[in-house]
Write a structure and sequence with these properties.
The chain has 115 residues and is mostly beta strands. Helix content is 0%, strand content 56%.
Length: 115
């Protein structure tokens, strides 16, 4: 079954702040196998960012390919997010429904403060 990918539209005033360092995304915790991009085979990384828009802040976890991570990214650093997509998901685990939204960006760039 194909997964629905939804492009996330952002206001021009939207700002992102890195909340954590990027970490390799683990596909299988039991074996330690890392997640890779289906098309390129590139290792995927996840990090928490804070989206700030219209006087509110939201914490979100974003997956980014390794080549899309800038040097010098640190918690608290403003970043620009390029090509952000949301993928809704749901699964049943131990008889309980879990659902959410997975976010994926093509790349992050360091953003100058105030831009």
């Amino acid at each position: 079954m194909a997964m629905t990918r939804i492009r996330v539209g952002l206001l021009p005033s939207t700002q992102f702040i890195a909340g954590t360092l990027p970490m390799p995304k683990v596909k299988d915790p039991e074996t330690g196998v890392l997640a890779t991009d289906r098309d390129t085979g590139e290792t995927l990384h996840t990090l928490t960012v804070f989206l700030m828009e219209e006087g509110r802040a939201e914490q979100m976890k974003i997956t980014v390919p390794e080549s899309g991570l800038p040097d010098g990214i640190q918690p608290g650093v403003p970043v620009r997010v390029t090509d952000l997509f949301a993928t809704p998901w749901a699964r049943i685990f131990n008889g309980q429904l879990s659902d959410g939204v997975a976010y994926r960006a093509a790349k992050l760039e360091l953003a100058a403060v105030g831009k």
